[in-house]
């Protein structure tokens, strides 16, 4: 492993165990979302609503976390795309749009400094490969992906390549595949309150970003003013047990719509343009991620208060 991997992966702090924020809705602790919006707004009470922790493409209406949490009939989401989807599935629920979660987290400044020092002033391409989940592993042709990334580097005179992997891919053999090819591998770590600050640092330390799968990271990069390239690549998923079968069936049920959306994003985020963000790209991401719905601290406080009081 490279030095950066050791620094980044082994120093995930214990803040998530010390911060004292115990959500009444378990999934709200994912990636520290409730912690950060409460800190940002100075809201002192529990958050009375399900916080969607990612942009669910393919018009996905599956419940996140425990179905009992939806008895509150309150959902905190990203932008207009999810509001429309949730409105069809849960017409009796209140839906509040707050934009990308990364807008409310503080950058891990120490981590950012480490990344900048490692780059030594050279321009960086950060690659966000499709990631595995707890119940299944995502696999793809690493050689092909790296060749495409290096083509982009040559085209746009980028000198350093970083691979940002999910926590599961740091331990399931995926990281080793990239290390063998001489790549610097980084991670935002576990799904704790440290995740978003570290992810912000990784994105902010990039000049251009790239991925082989449509995901929440794409809009986060655009929100933080980093151009993004999306390439098409076949992916397979493997796993064992009932949980894998359940998740696989959920993915298959919305695959056709997801592929339609991914094709649209592939057209907008091709490698033809990687040095600036176009107006069309920004508007598309605003529709999905809700950039215009990012709230000031006082606005967030009022939004959380309305959920708490209703």
Describe the overall structure.
This protein has a 5-stranded parallel beta sheet, sandwiched between helices. A 3-stranded parallel beta sheet has the order 1-2-3, covered by helices on one side. The protein has helices spanning 3-10, 15-18, 33-41, 80-89, 109-119, 142-156, 167-171, 174-180, 195-204, 216-223, 241-253, 255-268, 279-289, 297-309; strands spanning 50-51, 74-77, 94-97, 124-128, 137-139, 160-165, 184-187, 208-211, 228-230, 236-238. Helices cover 45% and strands 12% of the residues. It is α/β, with parallel strands linked by helices. The N and C termini lie far apart (51 Å).
Task: Produce a short descriptive summary.
By secondary structure, the protein is α/β, with parallel strands linked by helices. It has helices at 3-10, 15-18, 33-41, 80-89, 109-119, 142-156, 167-171, 174-180, 195-204, 216-223, 241-253, 255-268, 279-289, 297-309; strands at 50-51, 74-77, 94-97, 124-128, 137-139, 160-165, 184-187, 208-211, 228-230, 236-238.
The description of the largest β-sheet is: 5 strands, parallel
SS elements, strand count = 10
Oligomer, anyone? single chain
Give the helix proportion (percent range): 40-55%
Question: Which shape, going by the Cα principal axes?
Answer: globular
The number of helical runs is 14
By helix and strand content, what is the structural category?
alpha/beta
* Low-confidence parts: 1-18
Distance, first to last CA: 51 Å
Bin the strand percentage: 5-15%
Order of helical and strand elements: HHHEEHEHEEHEHHEHEHEEHHHH
Across the major sheet, the strand order is: 7-6-4-8-9
């Amino acid at each position: 492993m490279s030095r950066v991997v050791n620094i980044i992966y082994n120093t995930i702090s214990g803040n998530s165990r010390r911060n004292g924020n115990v959500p009444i809705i378990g999934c709200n602790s994912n990636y520290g979302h409730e912690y950060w919006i409460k800190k940002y707004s100075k809201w002192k009470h529990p958050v009375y609503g399900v916080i969607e922790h990612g942009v669910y493409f393919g018009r996905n209406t599956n419940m996140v976390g425990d179905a009992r949490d939806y008895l509150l009939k309150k959902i905190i989401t990203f932008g207009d795309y999810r509001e429309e989807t949730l409105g069809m599935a849960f017409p009796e629920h209140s839906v509040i749009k707050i934009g990308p979660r990364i807008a409310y987290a503080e950058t891990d400044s120490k981590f950012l400094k480490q990344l900048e020092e490692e780059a030594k002033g050279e321009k960086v391409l950060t690659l966000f490969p499709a990631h595995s989940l707890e119940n299944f592993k995502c696999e793809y042709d690493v050689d092909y992906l790296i060749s495409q990334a290096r083509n982009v580097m040559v085209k746009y005179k980028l000198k350093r390549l970083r691979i940002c992997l999910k926590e599961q891919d740091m331990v399931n053999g995926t990281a080793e595949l990239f290390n063998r090819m001489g790549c610097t591998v980084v991670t935002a770590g576990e799904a704790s309150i440290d995740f978003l600050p570290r992810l912000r640092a990784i994105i902010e330390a990039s000049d251009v970003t790239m991925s082989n799968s449509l995901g929440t990271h794409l809009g986060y990069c655009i929100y933080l003013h980093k151009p993004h390239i999306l390439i098409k690549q076949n992916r397979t998923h493997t796993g064992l047990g009932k949980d894998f079968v359940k998740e696989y069936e959920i993915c298959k049920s919305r695959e056709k719509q997801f592929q339609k959306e991914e094709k649209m994003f592939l057209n907008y985020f091709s490698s033809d343009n990687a040095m600036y963000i176009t107006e069309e790209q920004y508007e598309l991401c605003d529709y999905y991620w809700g950039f215009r719905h990012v709230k000031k601290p006082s606005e967030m406080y009022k939004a959380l208060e309305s959920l708490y009081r209703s």
